[in-house]
Amino acid sequence: MKRRQAVSTMAVLVGGSMVGSQLFLTGCKQTDKKASPTDFTAEELALLDEVGETIIPTTDTPGAKAAQIGAFMKIMVTDCYDAPAQKVFVDGIASLEAASDKKFGKGFMALEPAQRKELLIELDKEQREYQQNKKEGEPNHYFKMMKDLTLQGYFTSEIGATKALRYEAVPGKYEGCVPYKKGDKAWAT
Questions:
Q1: Which of 43, 70, 123, 166 could bond 143 through an S-S bridge, CB–CB 3.0 to 4.6 Å?
Q2: Which runs of consecutive H residues, i.e. helices, occur in the chain?
Q3: Closest CA to 64 of 75, 53, 48, 54
């Protein structure tokens, strides 16, 4: 990479992160708590934990359930989503249960792990088609929200950042070109 290209790329990244952080923080301001009440039950949080665990299962590293992904989703939906997006997400929990009942004749929590995975693969395909065909201003598909929050919550949690990714709390000197071997963990930033 040429020096000029590197400097240009860094300027875009730094500028984008500054603008993006302002937009993100602005999106988290909630003006009226009563305008969009989102009260998750213990059963819904457990369901969200299991959805997250199906997306990021426990292997040689802890899964999404260990990162308490359901509680993370609750905070993000309640504090950072606007009322229409909150409604889509909360209604999506019921839609997920309905899809499970339609396909397997029982709720998501009663499914075997292979059935859960099969159902979420179908929902992921459904959300991709929906996202490709949605018009501007329409809300995201509920499963896209669940999946995105699972990934965001897991990889920004202590477990995700230190167990699934390589993490160095206090980095040493800057090394712009570090060799990467296939199978190495990505770096937490």
A1: 123
A2: 3-27, 42-55, 69-80, 83-104, 113-133, 142-156, 158-159
A3: 53
Alpha-carbon distance values, 46 to 41, 42, 59, 64 (Å): 9, 6, 20, 12
CA distance 142 to 144: 5
Rg, Å, the chain Cα set: 19
Total residues belonging to the chain: 189
φ/ψ region of 124 (left if φ > 0, alpha if ψ in -120 to 50, else beta) reads alpha
pTM: 0.72
Which residues, in sequence order, are bridge partners of residue 187?
Answer: 166
Q: What angle do CA 42, 159, 46 make, to 5 degrees?
A: 15
Query: Tokens for 64?
Result: 């999404």
CB 72 within 8 A of CB 165: no
Euclidean distance between CA atoms 186 and 165, whole angstroms:
5
160: DSSP letter: I
Tokens 């229409």 identify what position?
Answer: 84
Which tens digit of pLDDT belongs to each residue from 34-71? 434 568 999 999 999 999 999 999 999 999 999 999 99
* 68 Cβ contact list (under 8 Å, min separation 6): 49, 157
DSSP letter for 166, please. Answer: B
